[in-house]
Amino acid sequence: MDILDYAFMQRALIAAVLVGITAPAIGIYLVQRRQALMGDGIGHVAMTGVGLGFLLNASPIWMATAVAVVGSVAIELIRWYGKTHGDIALAMLFYGGMAGGVMLMSMSDTGSNANLVTYLFGSLNTVSPQDVTTICVLAAFVVLVTVGLRRQLFAICQDEEFARVTGLPVRLLNLLVAVTAAVTVTVAMRVVGLLLVSALMVVPVAAAQQLSRSFAMTFALAVLIGVTVSLSGAVTSFYVDVPSGPTIVLLAIAIFIALALLAGPLARKRARGSAATAERCTLEVPAARVPQDDVRVQALRPDTMTTDRTSGR
Predict the structure, then answer these.
(1) Spatial separation of the C-alpha atoms in residues 187 and 127, rounded to whole Å
(2) Cα(313)–Cα(307) distance, integer angstroms
(3) In whole angstroms, what is the distance from residue 35 CA to residue 206 CA?
(4) Which residues, other chains included, contact 163 with Cβ-Cβ below 8 Å and sequence gap of 6+?
(5) What is the pLDDT of residues 53-74, one digit of tens each?
(6) How far is CA 46 from the centre of its chain?
(7) Distances from the Cα of 70 to the Cαs of 35, 46, 219, in angstroms?
(8) Alpha carbon distance 260, 45 (integer Å)
(9) Judging by beta carbons within 10 Å of its beta carbon (0-12, 13-18, 19+), is residue 175 exposed, middle or buried?
(10) 49: nearest Cα among 118, 119, 147
(11) Can you count the helices (H) and strands (E) in the chain?
């Protein structure tokens, strides 16, 4: 039977495409800022929102979004003002969020360990029509920020001091990156899971960097890889009956390994081509002067210069 005959797979594939677009789109900025594991920390914090949603009989996605946004702002504040004990505070925030989510889930009447596993590692058959609507709204926000403000975000990720000198609101943009990452985590948790979403933010970007060094090309390749592995993982999960989150992540890692092995020969080939081009364009200079290059200058003696004074010439 065709995979599209199932309504839940139609919703899952839509969600997979949106996750494949949004996760690398914000992940490229996190990689540039050396914050590749930020998505993992936000995923831990978002677990409290999921547990709170089950406890209050509210939407787990919206509650996870709200808690993840608050947690991302707290992470940025700790990064700005935390000195000696900043890493300890972050660790307490991450693991406290996970512990709080498990505790709140156990206190709710509708929560269970099965529900917890679906949010931790993703599950295709649990994507509801309401989830698709929510994911579409949140994904639109992520794409609007990452594409519409790409120049400003690239500037602060490369050099915050230079961006500040040029007049950009650096702290506001840093907060926007953190909030967008938090929203992306909640977008992806139904397909990839909270514990694995960080991999989908980082691995496609790292794979794209094996082939490209420009920001625009890396962005496009990372999104293409993200969509490819998300759709492939969803289809594989359906036919092989395996969890979607681990399948997507393993496919992304396989593509990274393949491109990393291919990048070496391509780099050597480009280097040889550049060397050959430089050799053709090199101007050869003689090593020594030959006798034909000598120029003799002979001065005229006074007695050879005659002047006809009688004629006035």
Answers:
(1) 11
(2) 7
(3) 13
(4) 152, 155, 156, 170, 173
(5) 888 888 888 999 999 999 888 8
(6) 20
(7) 18, 9, 27
(8) 33
(9) middle
(10) 119
(11) 12, 0
What distance in Å separates the CA atoms of residue 119 and residue 244, rounded to the nearest whole number? 11
227 Cβ neighbours under 8 A, 6+ residues apart: 17, 20, 21
Whole-angstrom distance, CA of residue 89 vs CA of residue 44 = 14
Cα–Cα distance, 61 to 43 (Å, whole number): 12
pLDDT 10s digits, 147-191 = 999 899 999 888 888 888 888 898 899 999 999 999 999 888 888
Rounded average pLDDT over 85-89: 64
What is the C-alpha to C-alpha distance for residues 136 and 133, in angstroms, rounded to an integer? Answer: 5
Measured between alpha carbons, how far is residue 201 from residues 35, 107, 125, 230, 263 in Å? 11, 32, 23, 12, 21
The pLDDT value recorded for residue 277 is 61
The superfamily (CATH) of domain 3-270 is ABC transporter involved in vitamin B12 uptake, BtuC (1.10.3470.10)
Residue 280, pLDDT above cutoff 90: no
